[in-house]
Amino acid sequence: MNSTYALYAILVMAAVTAVLRFFPFVVMGKGKTPAYVEYLGRVLPYAVMAMLVVYCLKDVDLKNAPFGLCEAVAVFVVAVLHKWKRNTLLSIIAGTVCYMILIRL
Amino acid sequence: MKKTIIKRAFLDSLPVLSGYMVIGIGFGIILEKEGYGFIWAFLMSALIYAGSMQYAGVELISSMASLPVVAITTLMVNARHLFYGISMIDKYKGAGTKKPYMIFALTDETYSLVCYTKYDRKEDNHLYSFFVSLFNQCYWVAGSLIGSILGSALPFDTRGIEFSMTALFVTVFVEQWINAKNHAPALVGLVASALCLAIFGRDNFLIPSMMAILFLLTIMKGRVIGDE
For residue A47, which residues of chain B lie inside 8 Å, CB to CB? Predict the structure, then answer.
């Protein structure tokens, strides 16, 4: 381990992450929000949430058994339960428990 | 009113509590294995506060990657945060002294909770978002400290519990789907990122996905998706 190097590396990671987070607010946040950015603000959350779901599932192995079946079933359970009960905590707990059981079968 | 909002922020953040505890503990454990103890776990979780980047960071630090490589990797892994920022510019407007922290703490999970409007008054939304951000970071820091200190001594088999994060995003996706009048933006996100994953592979698909989403949403403006 090398403390000086690690500290610098952490500061670089922190700085770049912060720049990415602050950039839109600093560059486009002045004055009245342009109509295009307002439009993006309205539609991006839907698209981004879909992208995040795909991002979470990116490591699923579709080529070998069980061919992502555990994930597919668990996602299905979460989605259907949520459509039915609209209770976030319940959907998440049920889906996660279901997944943890499935991967141990 | 203030109390009710903070209470709701806390209750809404509970799914993130379970997810961050697990992922945070995992992070603390692998960092500790590389010889960096709880002070380093605290530093990273307090200052960087980005889950997948901190995992990548352990790898970078242990292999002593050069600082430019560290910077470029961070840029690639975290570029999606630009998207979160763009969609929160209007919503976070006028948040005053709370705003810098709310921007700093805008992680995937926090974004999923604050990206749609919960209250009629802007101040209430800002208070809600601020506390969601704060609670979430507390869970994250606590998780990484626990992982770092207790390490692999933890007695239970938590394999698979990280699915709670995926489940959180799925519930938000379904919630948005039910509330949306137009499903085109959600479908654009789903199809574009699935296609990019198939074409570019798991390590490189995020940036092409974001460009494709931005492009498609832009050409759909005023046609498929109303301007309002």
Answer: 185-186, 188-189, 192, 213, 217
A70 is in which domain, residue-wise?
62-105
Helix (H, G, I), strand (E, B) or coil at B170: helix
Burial of A43 (0-12, 13-18, 19+ CB in 10 A): buried
Q: Please give the Cα distance from B208 to B27 (Å, whole number).
A: 28
Q: Does A32 lie in the same domain as A12?
A: yes
Looking at the fold, whether A52 and A75 belong to one and the same domain comes out as no
**Cis preceding linkage at B68, omega within 30:** no
The first and second tokens of residue A45, run together, are 């959350």
Please indicate, yes or no, whether residues A40 and A68 belong to a single structural domain of this protein: no
Examine the domain organization and report whether A6 and A26 are in the same domain.
yes
Across the A/B interface, how many CB contacts are shorter than 8 Å?
Answer: 252
Q: Which of B27, B80, B19 is nearest to B56 (CA)?
A: B27
ipTM of the complex in this document: 0.88
Residues A49 and A82 in one domain: no
A42 and A1 both lie in a single domain: yes
- Facing A45 at nearest CB: one of B48, B67, B115: B115
User: How many other CB atoms are found less than 10 A from the CB of residue A34?
Assistant: 11
A44 to chain B: closest CA residue: B87
pLDDT in tens, chain B (228 residues): 899 999 999 999 998 998 888 888 888 988 988 889 999 999 999 999 998 889 889 988 998 999 998 998 898 888 889 989 998 998 999 999 999 999 999 999 999 999 888 899 999 999 999 999 999 999 999 999 999 998 767 766 768 877 887 888 899 899 889 988 899 999 999 999 999 999 999 888 888 998 999 999 999 988 777 654
